[in-house]
Specification:
Residues 28-119, 152-244 form the DUF7036 domain. This is DUF7036 domain-containing protein. Pfam families: DUF7036 (PF23041). With 288 residues, this protein is α+β, with helices and mostly antiparallel strands. The chain has 9 helices and 11 strands. The protein has helices at 2-15, 35-39, 42-53, 91-105, 115-118, 159-164, 166-177, 218-232, 240-243; strands spanning 25-31, 58-67, 74-82, 121-128, 133-135, 149-155, 183-191, 201-209, 249-260, 263-273, 280-287. It has a 7-stranded antiparallel beta sheet with strand order 5-7-8-6-11-10-9. Strand 9 and strand 10 form a beta hairpin. The longest helix has 15 residues, at 91-105.
């Protein structure tokens, strides 16, 4: 029931995106209140939202209140706009706001609204954010460690759909890439337009050693590079009925050079030709 409500919510807010051509920052969430109940308290709702996420030279405007399929649930769509009208929101504060939004999306925090009027908020999503948005699903990794391999690929699904299947995606990739037990797969989900409800999603993947900061042996790095390149035609181990099918490999350009004593650098650029587009999608892999 919760997943069905979330899917319905994401679909409805995605359908509203064309209404925000001139608004840079748009987000949404759900409240278990009717539209008529919320209509009476819009100024207070805007104030509460601003108290939670407001940044200097900005204000919050509630743009739409959409009833969901369940009669007592409402989608609240709001924007953060410059205030006064022609003022500028600094890049530093926009970065802080983006981080706050990211935390709300992965439910590390929630909007604290006046409970007696609005109850508890849920299903926070971002419709637009300048410079894109990156969501980091909760996962185990030692972030101070430097990944020894990184590669990106694109799925034709929105972040919210991919995020719900993070464990399934990582398990399938681990099996498809034949990762060792001490190799951790760590992912970040990016939408370049700054939306968590609109496709596509760039899956930024890194492989980190579970213990220690030492690099794996050159033969292991080369083996993994070849496995990733070969696995691309096998959909990187992903079930195509769940995550879609990555396009076939159009070209592989592999370069190997020595950068220093005992230090090898591998780079593989794999170009995929999209079945439904004349453009190329690129999966890039780097070992350092």
């Amino acid at each position: 029931m919760v997943n069905a409500r979330k899917c319905e919510f994401a679909s409805s807010v995605y359908g509203c995106m064309h209404n925000f051509v001139y608004t840079d920052i748009v987000a949404s969430f759900m409240l278990q209140k009717t539209v008529s109940e919320l209509n009476e308290s819009i100024p207070k709702l805007e104030f509460d939202i601003y108290e939670e996420i407001g940044i200097p030279n900005s204000t919050v405007a509630v743009n739409f209140l959409q009833p969901s399929g369940a009669s007592n649930w409402t989608n609240v769509i709001f924007s953060v706009v410059p205030y006064p009208k022609y003022s500028t929101m600094s890049s530093t504060w926009l970065s802080i706001l983006r981080s706050h939004f990211m935390s709300l999306v992965v439910q590390q925090s929630t909007l604290q609204l006046t409970e007696s009027l609005f109850g508890n908020s849920s299903f926070f999503e971002v419709l637009k954010f300048p410079g894109g948005i990156t969501i980091i699903p909760p996962q185990a990794a030692f972030l101070v460690q430097k990944p020894y391999a990184s590669f990106n690929f694109t799925l034709n699904f929105p972040i919210d759909k991919v995020q719900d299947k993070t464990n399934e995606l990582k398990d399938q990739m681990r099996a498809g890439l034949l990762l060792d037990t001490n190799e951790i797969l760590y992912i970040k989900l990016t939408n370049l337009e700054g939306s968590t409800v609109a496709p596509p999603t760039v899956v930024r993947s890194s492989i980190i050693l579970e213990v220690g900061n030492h690099q794996p042996s050159p033969p292991r790095m080369k083996q993994l590079a070849q496995t990733i390149a070969n696995s691309s035609s096998g959909n990187l181990g992903l079930n195509h009925t769940v995550f879609g099918k990555l396009p076939d490999i159009a070209n592989i350009n592999q370069h190997l050079s020595r950068l220093g004593v005992g230090r090898l650098f591998y780079r593989i650029a794999v170009l995929f030709h999209a079945d439904l587009s004349d453009q190329f999608l690129c999966l890039s892999l780097q070992f350092e």
